Structure formats: C-alpha cells, structure tokens
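Hypothesis: this fold can be encoded by more than one sequence.
Test: take the structure tokens below, design a sequence, compare later.
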C-alpha cells in the first residue's frame, strides 16, 4: 500500500514566489490587450473564462522518454512505473491547471488494485480520461499472436482474444470513472494481395459490434484512423472516410478520433474536423505535430497555423451545437530528446494559444466576407485573430487558476527531475509507444 498517498511534488510556495515576481507585469499586459480587444468588440474576460475552462488530457505513455526504431535515450529521473508517471502528470497539472486527467493504455498500465490507483491519482489532483486498448503488439504470455491482425484477423479465436481485451479495458475504465474507449489497431498488410480489403473491414465491423455492445450507456468508443505504420501497404482503418462509415454503422456511441499525425502529408485536416463535426462523429482528438508522417512532435512546434485552423473549426462546431459538441482532447506525443514534462507543458501552451486565437475570430465579419465573395478579407479576418499576441490571456488564466504564470521557469528552478533521479534508480522499459 506504499502508493496510497502521493509524495508532494512542487510546493505551492515555489509557484507563489514565481507568480509574485511576474504578476504585476502580467496584469499590465493583460489590461493593455483588454483595451485592444475592446476596440474590436471583444470582452477579454469572456475569452479568459473559456481558456480557464479548457482541459486537455495527458497520456501516461508520454511521460517516459520515447524513441525511434533506431534507439532511445532515457533521462535520469524518468518514471519507471505508472505511479511515477502519475507523479509527473501531477507536475504538469500543478503548473498549468489545464491537464486534470490522464489517459491510460492497457495492458501497459495494468495494476493489481485499481482503487489504490484511483486514490493515488486523486491525492495528486488527477482523474482519468479515455482508456486505450492495445492489440498492435503481442504481450508476454499471450496465447495468440497479432502478427497478422487482431480485430480483423482471419482466425476467429484471435479476433475473440482482441475483442476480450477491449472489453477488459472498458471494465478497468469503469473502475477509474473513464467514459470512453479509444481503439487504434495496426491491422493491415505489407503486400498487395496479402489482404482482402472488404473482408478485413467486415471482420472489423463484426468485432467492433461486440465491443460496442459492451459499452455502458454513458460511454463512447473512439476509432482512431491512421494512414500507415506498422502496415506499409494497406491499413484497415486508414482514414477518416473509413472511420466515419464504421462509426455510422456501429451506432451513436461510436465516433471518430483525429490524431493530427495520422494523415498523408498536406492533407487538409481542419476540413476533416469540420466534416466529422457536421455529422456528429468527432469524438476525440490526439494533439501533436508532424513534418513528414506520424512524427509525434510537440503540438504547435511545426505548424502552429494549422493548429489554429483546427481550433477555428472546433470553435465553429461548438457554436453550432453548444449542448452536444464535446470532443475528448488529449495530447499524444513522443518525446525523444526533451524532458517529457517540459514538452507537454509547452504543448499545452501551444494548444491554448491556438484556442484563444480561434476565439478571437470575428465570426460575423468572416461570414459576411464569405457570403460576399471577398476571399482576401475573409482570410484577413482569420489573420487578424492569428496575429494577436494572446500570451497575456494565458498568463492571467494560469494565475487565476492557481497555476504558474511561467510553468517552465518554475519547473526548471524546482530541480524536480534531479530530485527524482536520486530516488528513481532504475530505468525500465517505459518508452512511449507511438500511437
Ligand atoms: Mn494517437
């Protein structure tokens, strides 16, 4: 029972001392931006309220340093088990107050006692978000291999094993008050002719219908598409088209999950977001960024304008359907050369910046320019919002929620990782999966 109460992480004093130094300047900058926005007819306090309410989940598997197929560079003080990963998640929540929930991945995150896990998380001010199943690799002691597929495998017993794993994930998730299951599978083929596209998808739908039937009333299942990898010729759920067809076939609790890195290069992802939202099928989001493929780089680090355009669609969709539009937001990144805590805090900041800027778009003017066939002014309306320096709003949001005005500065000054390096002696295989 050594994990029942968490050890203190960064003390409130450390945050307060830093905020005391930065507060006066932040308040002045906020007041100045407030004046500028008022001239544009925007009440900065309305924007601030939305930013303070925005939450994004962090992935347990993102707390360990990731790697590539060429290798991995562990950092001293990295987490060795789920409890240590939760301690790291707690630091991000403590310093940003925007990440109160953690997404778990099974069987990686299996523990003996889920009540203990829940209590430990609660003592760190953390809860749990969507649970993720894993049928893209074989586990020790697993009776049937997923080498040639899982939910779409040609053999019924292998499909059944994958179905049962997903049902077990739902069962565990219920113990942790999660409300959604995310299913990404690597099923596909490496050779033309290896797999019958149609029969593979039929098997997927049959398997997912059983998983769907196992969902509690207030749960949803998110289907995460991905163009390629680990299968390099064809993937069963390769894009949003296949995903939405399956979601429509399965029923209202089935929705699509958009991982920003799971598309072909240059695909118009914001348009996919709009389409899925229009048909009530945008269930969740995995934020990251990419240059070439499923790079799992930090959100907003390569293409912050795309992130802004995605949030433009999310704000638009929320405006159309404020009651029902409620996607599950999560970060899904692999941190290969940075401290995952630092990367995730920077990513939260990028996401909040994109969201804030999207909230500043003058939607009445935009619609007028769209309907009046004035492409230049329509685009200029977006750029007016995008070019606004919204950092003062994020700083005041953090100040008012009890987070750190400067999360990275407080984290670096705290020496958290060095302290953990003295305690966390071993460095096990806790690498982030790329999902
Ligand atoms: Mn993902």
């Amino acid at each position: 029972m050594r994990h029942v109460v968490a050890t203190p992480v960064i003390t409130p004093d450390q945050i307060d001392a830093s905020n005391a130094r930065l507060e006066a300047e932040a308040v002045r900058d906020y007041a100045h931006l407030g004046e500028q926005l008022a001239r544009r007819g925007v009440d900065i306090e309305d924007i601030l309220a939305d930013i303070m309410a925005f939450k994004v989940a962090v992935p347990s598997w993102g707390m360990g340093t990731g790697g590539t197929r060429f290798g991995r560079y562990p950092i001293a003080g990295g987490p060795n088990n789920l409890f240590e990963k939760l301690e790291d998640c707690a630091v991000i929540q403590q310093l940003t107050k925007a990440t109160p929930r953690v997404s778990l991945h099974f069987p990686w995150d299996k523990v003996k006692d889920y009540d203990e896990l829940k209590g430990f998380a609660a003592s760190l001010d953390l809860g749990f978000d969507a649970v993720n199943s894993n049928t893209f690799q074989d586990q020790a002691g697993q009776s049937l291999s997923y080498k040639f597929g899982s939910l779409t495998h040609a053999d019924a017993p292998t499909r059944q094993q994958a179905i049962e794993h997903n049902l077990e994930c739902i069962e565990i998730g219920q113990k942790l008050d999660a409300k959604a299951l995310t299913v990404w599978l690597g099923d596909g083929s490496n050779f033309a002719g290896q797999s019958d596209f149609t029969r593979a998808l039929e098997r997927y739908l049959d398997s997912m219908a059983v998983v769907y039937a196992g969902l509690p009333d207030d749960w949803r299942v998110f289907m995460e598409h991905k163009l390629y990898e680990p299968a390099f010729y064809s993937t069963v759920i390769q894009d949003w088209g296949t995903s939405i067809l399956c979601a429509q076939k399965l029923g209202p609790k089935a929705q699509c999950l958009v991982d920003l890195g799971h598309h072909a290069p240059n695909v118009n992802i914001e348009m996919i977001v709009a389409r899925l939202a229009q048909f009530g099928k945008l269930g969740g989001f995995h934020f990251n960024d990419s240059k070439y493929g499923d790079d799992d780089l930090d959100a907003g680090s390569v293409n912050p304008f795309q992130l802004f355009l995605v949030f433009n669609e999310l704000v638009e969709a929320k405006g159309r359907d404020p009651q029902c539009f409620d996607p599950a937001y999560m970060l899904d990144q692999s941190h290969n050369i940075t401290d995952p805590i630092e990367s995730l805090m920077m990513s939260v900041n990028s996401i909040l910046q994109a969201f804030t800027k999207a909230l500043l778009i003058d939607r009445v003017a935009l619609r007028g320019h769209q309907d009046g066939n004035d492409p230049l002014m329509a685009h200029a309306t977006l750029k007016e919002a995008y070019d606004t320096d919204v950092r003062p709003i994020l700083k005041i949001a953090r100040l008012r929620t009890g987070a750190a005005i400067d999360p990275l500065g407080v984290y670096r000054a705290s020496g958290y990782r060095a302290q953990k390096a003295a305690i966390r002696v071993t460095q096990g295989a806790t690498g982030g999966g790329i999902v």
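The chain is about 45% helix and 10% strand. The chain has a mean pLDDT of 95.
Hypothesis status: open.
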